[in-house]
Amino acid sequence: MRGLITDLLSDGGIPVVGEAANGKEAIEVVKDVEPDVVTMDLEMPELNGIEAVERLMAERPTPVLMLSAYTDDDAEVTFEALDKGAVDFFAKPGGEVSMGVSRMGEQLVSTVQTVADADIDRSILDREDRRARRSRPPESSKQTAFEHPHTVVIGSSTGGPNAVERVLESLPSGDCRVLVVQHMPEAFTARFADRLDAASEYDITEATDGARIGPGEGLVAQGGRHLTVSNYRRGRLRVKLIEDDRGYTVQPAVDVTMASAAETIDDPLIGVILTGMGADGADGIRAIHTAGGRTIAQSEDTCVIYGMPKRAVETGHVDDIRDLDEVSAAIAEGNA
C-alpha cells in the first residue's frame, strides 16, 4: 500500500520524501524530513494512527490525511483521528491493500494537495477549544429561541466535521430544521449524523429518501447522493435523494441542496458556508440570498481551509461573515 500510494502521488507531481512502516517510525521520519503533509493509516504496528497523530500534533504539528477503509469501525476511529488533529481523511476501497486505490489516484492527489494547504495552527486551536468545552460543565441556559422556526442549510468540506459540530451544539434547542451537507463518503455520513445528534439538542439522523423533518430535527446528506428539498408544508419539509451526479464533482453537493431549499421553502431560510476547499456552495448561497433568505460565511481567520467561504463571499450574496464560534449566534439573529 505504501508503494502504491507513493507511485500515485509521484505520478501526480507530489514528491514523497519519506516512508514509515509504523506510527513510531513515522514520528521520527516527520521530524527528520519535515514534510508539508503526511498520509497516515489507521491500523499500524507499535503505534497506531490515532496515537501517532496525537503525538505529531504535540511534537511536530503537520497536516495529516488519514487513510481509512470503508467500514463502520474505521468510520468511528477516523472521527477520533479528526478529534486528535488530523485535517481530513481519504476512504480507500477494498480494505487494507487494494488496487482499487489506483483508480482513485487523481482524487488522492487532489486531497493531499488540499490538506497540505490547511491552516494547521487553526486546526490545533480548534482541537484545544473542543477539549476545553468538553471539560466545562453544561451551560445552564441556551440562546434565545427563534420567534418563528427557521430552516438552516449548512455546507462544509475539509475541516467541516468539527466545525459543524461546534455550530450545532450552540443552536437554540428545538427551533430550527437543519440540513447538513458535508463532503464525505457514504460509509461515514451515518456516523457523522450520530456525532451531531450526541453533540446537539437536535434529533439528527442520516437522510433517507422521502424523510420528513420539523422544528428540532435535522438531516445529514447521505454520501454519494445529492439531497434536495422536495416538499415543504406546515413547518415540515420532505427530502429526496438523487443518485445521478448531475455533473457535479462532489456528491452530495451543497449547491444542489441550497438551490432546492430556496425554490421550495417560503418560510425563513438561512444558508451557512463553513470551512472547505473549492467553490461548492457559492451558487447555493446566491440562490438563498436571491430568494430572500439570510446567508452566513465562516471567517478566514477561523477556517482550516478558506476556499468555500471565500468563493461564497466573492458572489456578493453573503450577508454576514463570522468567526466559527459566532456562527450559531448569527443564525439566531435571523430571529430579529
What does this structure look like?
The chain has 336 residues and is of the alpha/beta class. The protein has 2 domains: 2-119, Rossmann fold (3-Layer(aba) Sandwich), CATH 3.40.50; 150-335, Methylesterase CheB, C-terminal domain (Rossmann fold). 38% of the residues lie in helices and 20% in strands. The protein has 12 helices and 13 strands. It has helices at residues 2-11, 23-33, 49-59, 72-84, 105-116, 120-135, 160-168, 186-199, 254-264, 282-290, 308-314, 327-332; strands spanning 38-41, 64-69, 88-92, 150-156, 176-182, 203-206, 212-213, 217-220, 226-233, 236-242, 269-273, 294-298, 320-322. The strands form 3 sheets. The chain has a 7-stranded parallel beta sheet, sandwiched between helices. Strands 1-2-3 form a 3-stranded parallel beta sheet, with helices on both faces. Strands 7-10-9 form a 3-stranded antiparallel beta sheet. Strand 9 (226-233) and strand 10 form a beta hairpin. Helix 10 crosses helix 11. It is globular and about 60 Å long.
Features:
single chain, about 325 residues, alpha/beta, Rossmann fold, 2 domains, seven-stranded parallel β-sheet, three-stranded parallel β-sheet, 12 helices, about 40% helix
